[in-house]
Amino acid sequence: MSRDGFGSKLGIIAAAAGSAVGLGNIYRFPCELGNNGGGAFLLVYLLIVLGLGVPVMLSEFVIGRKTQKNPIGAFKMLKPKSGWPIIGYMGVGCALVIMAFYSTVAGWTLEYIVKAVGNQFKDKDLATIEQEFTAFHDIGWKNVLWQGIFIFLTAFVVFKGVADGIEKYSKVLMPLLVVILMVLAIRSVTLPGAGDGLTFLFKPDFSKITGSVLISALGQAFFSLSMGMGVLITYGSYIKKDDNMTTSALSVTLSDTLIAVLAGVVIFPAAFSFGVQPTAGMGLVFNTLPMIFNQMAGGYYFCIIFFVLLAVAALTSTISLLEVIVAYLVEEVHIKRRWATVIAAVACMAVGVFASLSLKSNTSLTIGGKSIFDSLDFVSSNILLPLGALFIVIFVGWIMGKSKFFEEITNGGQLKLSLKGVIYFIIKYLAPIAIMVIFISGFIK
Ligand code: PFF
């Protein structure tokens, strides 16, 4: 029943790229790179994305399109009376966890749009911008309010199923985001002292590669590509039977990675130029960017447009997260789409409040010394997504088997794919081993 509620008419590239491109590229990627050794992280990240991105994404697409179901229903159908649907449940849980902290940051983009329109960054120095950002976190209700508005917007789109409109907007707005990032990159690399930022970003220091850098890169790759939790199974179920899923997976992977690297080229040269530490985490983006706009002709307008685009990019990602929960409630629990959307949104908000409030400076909302926000982020990206992806490739490689996989990716033999053997080999052997090795190395200190 919900099959045509959302996304049936979406071009899969637009939908999957909409899910992939978001705060993960522009906010989380620089944070992770800055905290994990710069160029060394970039190198590992690129190797993981190029090696595992397409095979894992294809595995999810195949499961989704073959079964035409949500992740839980899909595993139930392909392997009845087995434990495999647990992977689907894990994905739904993971969507909730990601939504909870992601919506916090998404809410900030709305606060920043308001600030940009009010020209509130004008002529301010870094110390003042940093101080205001910290002070903003201390106003708990404001963070929660923006978060609530963002979750409401997401629920509205998921409920209305105005995916068609979103697709049309995304097609124009996402290329525009790339253009603006390019303009910002040019401004950033021509700032005094920018060279150090480029060196930090592109020059790998191999001694920095540790187990925790590996797992952070793995987690970031899956997070950024929306892999390992069933978003792409759900979207795969909407892919048309004559689409070439392999080229779709390739385009999504490449464009997502390009945007992340571009964000790095914007952030790091400017951060080094203004004296923002590469380990500054969320401040890296939310404090450095206004500083760049202050140094640009037309910066006032660029600032507004940029944060609007960032909010839209975040929205197309939160839509995909909420859709996983909603599709599950509609198809497996048989709740009407309207109520499913309300329940999913309220659940995300209920957990999300704790994520937002845990960023106050005097917070007691911590788990094991980390804020709830950081804990949710860590658990989802560094544990749940790699585990989800691991089981998905094992399922496709070892349970579903070669002939069904080939049949699906070649659209029943109609497409000639010369690399299909290589892709299958990666799915069956290389990906599970790589994920396991990185995962285990991440926990050995
Ligand atoms: N890929 C999104 C981003 O980079 O912003 C975040 C995300 C969306 C992660 C959907 C996971 C997911 F299932």
Write structural notes for this entry:
There is one protein chain. The N and C termini lie far apart (49 Å). This protein has one domain: Orthogonal Bundle (Hydantoin permease), CATH 1.10.4160.10. Mean pLDDT is 92; it is low at 1-9. The longest helix has 33 residues, at 85-117. The protein is mainly alpha-helical and 445 residues long. It is globular. It contains 19 helices and 2 strands. A hairpin with a 2-residue loop joins strand 1 and strand 2. A two-stranded antiparallel ribbon has the order 1-2. Helix 3 (39-67) packs across helix 10, helix 5 crosses helix 16 and helix 10 (211-224) packs across helix 19. It has helices at residues 12-20, 23-35, 39-67, 71-78, 85-117, 126-138, 140-160, 163-189, 194-202, 211-224, 231-236, 245-274, 282-286, 288-294, 299-331, 337-357, 372-400, 402-409, 420-443, and strands at 366-367, 370-371. The structure holds 4-fluoro-L-phenylalanine (PFF). 4-fluoro-L-phenylalanine binds at residues 19-20, 22-25, 98, 223-224, 226, 229, 231, 317, 320-321.
